[in-house]
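Quick note —
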Amino acid sequence: MTAPDHSATFTKANVAAVPERAAQLRHEFSVWLRSHFTLDPEKVSDMVLAVNEALANAAEFAYINAPRPGAMHVRADYDTAAATLTVTVSDEGAWRNSASDDHNPARGRGIPLIHALTDHAVIDSSPAGTHVRLRWDHVVAAPSAHAQDCGSRTT
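Predicted structure written out below.
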């Protein structure tokens, strides 16, 4: 349990990196976000869409050359003092070279979209996997979020 006056956390680890599970994580994150923060509907939509793009990339590409899907992880941390929400989507797969999609104009918009929808986004990839860190500033916790925080941490 986190201290109610310090942070709120949403955690899902070792989830199969497949589209169905990405959609489920998106929904669970959306529910958590709406229950813990006072945000206008457009901001919620932007945040959920950015997280969805990171999840979709992990589900579609991280394990494309693997014999079976690996794991993806989501962690959202709220810092009350800084009023920031940071969401990290990670996997242990390989980074995909987008050059293969250059011929398809419908592809390759996820990362620019992520950058447009967040206050700060960093994508770190290495042979050990990819970490997509998304941050939003000036996020206000809902008054009832402190009471709900005991149940916000999930695995």
